[in-house]
Amino acid sequence: MPIGEREGVTKQTSRQDRPVPWPGRSPGATQWGIVSQPQARIVIIGGGPGGYEAALVAAQLGAAVTIIERDGLGGACVLTDCVPSKTLIATSGLMTALEGSAALGLQAGATRATVDAPRLYARVRALARAQSADVSARLCAEGVEVISGTARLAGPRTVSIGDREITADAVLVATGAQPRVLLGAEPDGDRVLTWRQLYDLQELPPQLIVVGSGVTGAEFAGAYQALGSQVTLVSSRQHVLPHEDTDAAVVMEEVFRRRGMTVLGRSRATEVRRTGSGVSVILQDGRTVRGSHCLLTVGMVPSTSGLGLTECGVTVDKHGFIPVDRVSRTSLPGVYAAGDCTGVLMLASVAAMQGRIAMWHALGEAVQPLRLSHVAATIFTEPEIATVGITEQDVESGEAEAVVVKLPLATNARAKMQGFRDGFIKLFARRSGGTVLGGVVVAPRASELILGVSLAVEQMLTVDQVAHTFAVYPSLSGSLTEAARRLMRPSSP
Ligand SMILES: Cc1cc2nc3c(=O)[nH]c(=O)nc-3n(C[C@H](O)[C@H](O)[C@H](O)COP(=O)(O)OP(=O)(O)OC[C@H]3O[C@@H](n4cnc5c(N)ncnc54)[C@H](O)[C@@H]3O)c2cc1C
Fold first, then answer.
1. From the CA of 395, how far away is ligand 1's center (Å)?
2. For residue 124, what are the contacts with CB-CB under 8 A and spacing of at least 6?
3. How far apart are alpha carbons 177 and 23 in whole angstroms?
């Protein structure tokens, strides 16, 4: 399994007991208001969520902050990955809703709604640019110096950009990651594509072959099927979403097939060839799948080469990731790293939190180390799959002593009114004491519903406390309190 994909990597080192390398503090930032030290200087390489959120925290604490970005503020997150894909999915979600509108009593129009691809892609690109401009304006307003260019470490606390060198009290590396390329399936930006090249197309791919059934593959396969492409999803594993909750993955695969997608399980792609008018994907067992376009979603590799890291003494692992501890320290004092380049958990929210934690730590603030067990994540398929806390695998392997309940949403009154039946709420609670340890929500807007479970996990609420919380009737969140009620135990006599 390649290190990469968003679901892939959870490797944490624990070096929290090392001495703090530089407890710098900026004027006015102490609780006593004593201006006794020179202003701290922070340099950040990379303007994605790992970098820009860190810059905002450091500026708020009074440091002089420089951020260097080569492509555009907001990073790949805003310009090519998270924001564009979720914008595309906003449109595909509407198409799915329209598909189901007749069942809800709407008179279907004479023709099915179709997608105006150039307009859709123009909207995606414009929204990404606007979001990047918002990030830029915010950094400017906070007094952060922004340099456009490619930076590298020139010394333990020195960063170079072209001829210029900046020495800092602390450096943050937040350079992100890029799509992994398979030998024999090199993208050409025309028919063989990474997700970063989709928005330059002039048309909706008529027959799209998606290689890779992890989070990114599943999101794009579902979206393009809804938009009107005929999608074939090539999965090397038995099921789609192999690293996710199995019940959720089964629901998603059923939905995909019902909507007309071809899902090829246990089918490893070995080569992608251009043909006259399209592409052929060659599978390991000799079969060939033909389509108009191929989208490769086979993981990510960290953007850490050429940064001068090892030359300066920053440890980089064999895959190119920068190992960090839970306060984002690398092996070199004064150098921190955050986000996808660390491979900790490839999510924007985690990148941002790692960046903030790095700055709180570097600037001598009290800091709560990163807690991966509390990270909420969503797969933006239709229905969405949102998770937080422990997993069913943790329970089955005995790693967590927990009880589990799963409530299908098909019996929820609100779900019936809205006309959907695919989905469930699953809750995990500690066997002794009933503390909520995690949950899975498969539902439309599960990304919003999961907050209730996240709050319970973060605040260590028990199922009794959740069960006694009012939920609106009728609502999907009513199934969450109902799940908690099912896990309540009678108090002992
Ligand atoms: C298709 C897709 C959808 C996603 N959807 C979601 C989602 O819905 N929710 C979620 O939480 N996460 C999502 N993610 C993950 C999320 O995009 C990443 O976790 C996030 O972008 C990581 O932020 P980062 O700051 O580490 O890196 P990036 O956002 O990649 O930013 C790094 C920046 O560093 C710059 N850089 C690199 N090297 C240098 C250098 N030498 N000098 C100057 N600048 C440099 C790059 O140009 C880049 O702009 C998605 C990912 C993909 C691929």
1. 32
2. 84, 87, 88, 199
3. 30
User: What is the Cα–Cα distance from 239 to 202, expressed in whole angstroms?
Assistant: 32
Rounded-to-integer distance, Cα 344 and Cα 445, Å: 26
Alpha helices by DSSP H, listed for 387-468, are 392-396, 413-418, 446-458, 463-467
Angle between the 82-99 and 215-227 helix axes, to the nearest 10 degrees? 40
**Is any atom of ligand 1 closer than 6 Å to the C-beta of 75?**
yes
389 within 8 A of 428, measured Cβ to Cβ: yes
Q: Give the pLDDT of residue 35.
A: 41
- In this structure, are residues 218 and 87 in contact, taking their beta carbons and an 8 Å threshold? no
Query: Residue 148 and residue 123: Cα distance in Å, rounded?
Result: 25
Which mutation among 3, 5, 6, 132 tests ligand 1's pocket best, with the greatest number of atoms within 8 A of CB? 6
- Helix, strand or coil for residue 386? strand
Q: What is the pLDDT of residues 333-387, one digit of tens each?
A: 999 999 999 999 999 999 999 999 999 999 999 999 999 999 999 999 999 999 9
204 lines ligand 1 (CB under 6 A): no
Structure tokens at 342: 């660390």
C-alpha of residue 469 to centroid of ligand 1, in Å = 38
From the centroid of its chain, how far is CA 69? Answer: 21
Instruction: Fill in the DSSP letter of residue 435.
Output: B
Q: What element of type H or E holds 221?
A: helix 215-227
Mean pLDDT for the chain overall: 91
Distance in Å from the first CA to the final CA of the chain: 51
Cα atoms in the Cβ-side hemisphere of radius 13 Å centred on 71 = 16
Cβ-Cβ contacts under 8 Å for 387 (sequence gap 6 or more)? 244, 245, 248, 376, 377, 378, 438, 439, 440, 441, 450
406 Cα: distance to centroid of ligand 1 (angstroms):
34
96 phi and psi, to 5 degrees?
-65, -40
Task: Tell me the whole-structure pTM to 2 decimals.
Answer: 0.92
170 CB near ligand 1 (under 6 Å): no
The pLDDT tens digits of the residues spanning 102-145 come to 889 887 665 678 999 999 999 999 999 999 999 999 999 999 99
